Amino acid sequence: MVRVFNYSPASPEAIDLAIAEAARVFWMHLLPADWVNCSAAGPRPECSLKSSQDLIIRVIAKALPNAGAHTLGMTSRFQTGSSAAIFFDRAESLRLGSSPLPLILGRALAHEAIHVVLPEQGHLHRGLMKAHLTQADFQLGCTDCSMIPPAMAVTVRRELERRALYGHSMTLAAKSAGSPQPAREIP
Ligand SMILES: [Zn+2]
Question: Taking burial as the number of CB atoms within 10 A of a residue's CB, which of 2, 16, 79, 156 is the most buried?
Fold first, then answer.
């Protein structure tokens, strides 16, 4: 499961559409995955679950000071796992032209989710995992722009399946031990 938390001026509708785009990219190139908007109105039980196997991505207002000039997001690694942030101001700056904001945010979500899953994986020269994504990469007619090469897709899929299996067994173990999982957000 990928949990998305919005701390930016992006509207809830824009985040919903961005999540739909990220889910589409995953479905097309990797596998169907549960993407949840954890900033949507109303309680979402899946957002208060704690599993180290889940992916957490925050959409934040401004790029972090240590981000490169053209960076759309960053993934931070911790001993307990990784979490990622997408920069709303950088997505906005790419919006000029015909690229809708949710498309840019959605592709950035999918890009960072892959960094979280495969922290050792570097960037590629084309497709979704390019290091420097420009306005040209978000044109509506570009079929190649969300592409993930099959070899990388196999590795990502394997890791996502491992996480899903491991996360499920962890949840079962926690339930049988009677220990409730406290809600926690990575800051
Ligand atoms: Zn990247």
Answer: 2
